[in-house]
Structures are given as structure tokens and as C-alpha cells.
Amino acid sequence: MSYTVPPTRTAAVVRQLRNEIVTGELPPGTLIKDAELAGRLGVSITPVREAIAQLSVEGLIDIAPNRTRHVTKVTQKNALELIDVMSVLACAGFEWGVENLTQTHIDLMRQRQKEFVEGLRSGNVLAATAAGADFSTIAILASGNRELQSMVDLVVARTNRILAMSAESNLWDTWITGHDEILELLEAGNTAGALARYQRIYVEYRAKVEQDLFDD
């Protein structure tokens, strides 16, 4: 994922609203009002409307036939389906790229893992999410398929919004442990084992989401 300074006001509004939705600051069902958002963010109506349209495409905002807009509501079915889609896309990218990883790639993945853990320890979920996503991005981009990465980014943003995990959520443990073990396997030159461990992260993650968030 790219977290550089947005080049336009619309991009800045998209990032701000996406972050607020992902972190739960704007919870599911929240009514989105153009003028109210424009005033709060200090921009005109146009970039706000363009941002809402973009976030609607991403599945973060629902636009009703009467044109009212709400933050997309969460359902168990939607959450698990998104995880399944994310698994298919990310695992395909990791499989295509893992054989192309160099020591430089692995060192960068280790750095992102460190930032991931540090972000969670400091309670900065957005920084942790970005670093955690970059861990996978490094391997996926090593495949040379940037189109796939853009699709992964889209699904990751929607999945994170639906789960809206706090820094204390035990769901992060699945990723922390998985990443650490993947790095050990890569350092040992065991790319097949690293791929299998990466795939297992999604199996474990899905099971924990279903049990911990939807057990009642």
C-alpha cells in the first residue's frame, strides 16, 4: 500500500475518511453528509463527493437509491467472504513472488515486521496496518504483477474496515507469529515452507475471526 502524501484534495479526503472508517471512528451505519464533512475537513463539496464515490467503489460507503450515504454495515457473511477473497489474491501473489525474493527483500520484510509490532505496542493501528500490509506487498510485487497488488490493496482496506481491530485484539497474534516464522523459513532458503506458512495464516485468521467476532 502507498501511504505517501496525497497529490490532490480528493485523495486527501479519501485517505482521511478511509482511516476514520477503518479505525471505527465512523462506525457502520453512520450517515455521511457532504456539507458536514466539507466543513469539518476544510474543503469544498466537490472533493468530498468524489471521495464518497471512490469509497463507495471500495465497498466502504453504501449509497441508497434515494442518494443517502452510510458507512457500510458489517455482517458475518461479508466479513468472511472478504477474508476468503483476500486469501486467494494475496496467496497467489506471494506464491508468484516468493521465488524472486532476494536478501534485500527479506531484510525489508523484517523491517516492516518490526514496524508492525511496534505500531501495535504503541497503539497506532494505522501504522501497524500499513507495515503489516507492506510485509506481504514486498513479496507480491516481487512477482512483477502490480495489477494484482492493487486488487489486494482494495480488499485489505475493506477487510480492515469491517474488522476495525484495536491494538489489543488477539487477532493480530496470528499475523505476528506467522510473519516471524515466514522470515525464519525465508532465511533458511525454504521458499516452499514460507509459502505454506503464509497460506496457513489465512486459514487461522479466518477461523479466529469467525469464532472471536461472530460466536454468538
TrEMBL record:
InterPro entries: GntR_C, TF_FadR/GntR_C, Tscrpt_reg_HTH_GntR, WH-like_DNA-bd_sf, WH_DNA-bd_sf. Keywords: DNA-binding, Transcription, Transcription regulation. GO terms for molecular function: DNA binding; DNA-binding transcription factor activity. Residues 7-74 form the HTH gntR-type domain. SMART domains: HTH_GNTR (SM00345). The keyword Transcription regulation applies. This is GntR family transcriptional regulator. It comes from Actinoplanes friuliensis DSM 7358.
